[in-house]
Amino acid sequence: MFASGRCLCGAITFTVENPPLRMAQCHCEQCRRSTGTGHIVQAFFKREDVAVKGTTATYKSTADSGFERTRHFCPNCGSRLFAENAKNPAVIGIAAGAFDDSSWFKPMVNLYASQRPVWDIVDPEIESHAEM
Amino acid sequence: MTTRPIIDTQATCSCGATTLTVKGPVLSMLLCACLDCQKETGTGHSAVALVKAVDVTTSGTLLAFSRPAASGATTTRHFCPQCGVTLYAQSSRAPQTMLVPAGLLGGDWFNPNQVIFARSHTEWDTLPETIPHYETYREGL
């Protein structure tokens, strides 16, 4: 097992078998609203490598790409957990803060940097894209 | 930038089922790196504005989740059951105030002047170096 995690109340737990495909931060309006901070922080894995226990609540919306995005959260404590995109159903994004030990995490790219709030500090060394 | 901006803002969750309106002074602005904030936001720290509870109105149905906080008090987070977005939180230490997420309110007025619970800060997360980082909770917020 590569890593494990849970929501704040423990109703939802998960394990991941292999390292992530990609790790990113995103400053878009939906990511800022769903986290309440300046950017979301996610690690993306093969869906088949992730096992989830417990039932998440979901919220579906349309991403800028035009594809449907599903955000998973805990219905009991509201913790931010997973994100899936219909463009690539074989991949799942997991919020970095959800992991029991996230010391392996290192953001590789900043997305929607053009929408970064002035008060949100990010590492200037990370590759930044104005949008996607 | 003023340390206590007066704001008049309405914010909604992602699905629009709940809204929060704040009209009044921002008492404090801070970043919190406690483990509960990291887990609830899914990020390295929360970014919150402290306002008076009497200056806040909400609409729509919110769910509440309470938990002992790193400070020793009880923190209750209020979120939309349909999309999971947190509208505000309250600490039992200061029931006359509410903590509202900066990512929800938007606005260039947000200017955190401290980091609390820096003792659990993770290495992959970036914090501003120009403001004080307190290991735990600073009294007299």
Task: Characterise the protein shown here.
The complex is a heterodimer of chains A (132) and B (141). With 132 residues, chain A is mainly beta. Chain A has one helix at residues 29-35; strands at residues 3-6, 13-16, 22-26, 40-46, 50-53, 57-62, 68-73, 80-85, 91-95, 109-111, 127-128. Chain A has one domain (3-128): Metal Binding Protein, Guanine Nucleotide Exchange Factor, Chain A (Beta Complex). Chain A has an 8-stranded mixed sheet with strand order 6-7-8-9-4-3-10-11. A 3-stranded antiparallel sheet of chain A has the order 1-2-5, with no helix packed on it. The mean pLDDT of chain A is 95. Chain B is mainly beta and 141 residues long. Chain B has one domain (6-120): Metal Binding Protein, Guanine Nucleotide Exchange Factor, Chain A, CATH 2.170.150.70. Classes of the chains: A mainly beta (132), B mainly beta (141). At the A-B interface, helix 1, strand 4 and strand 6 of A face helix 1, strand 3, strand 5 and helix 2 of B.
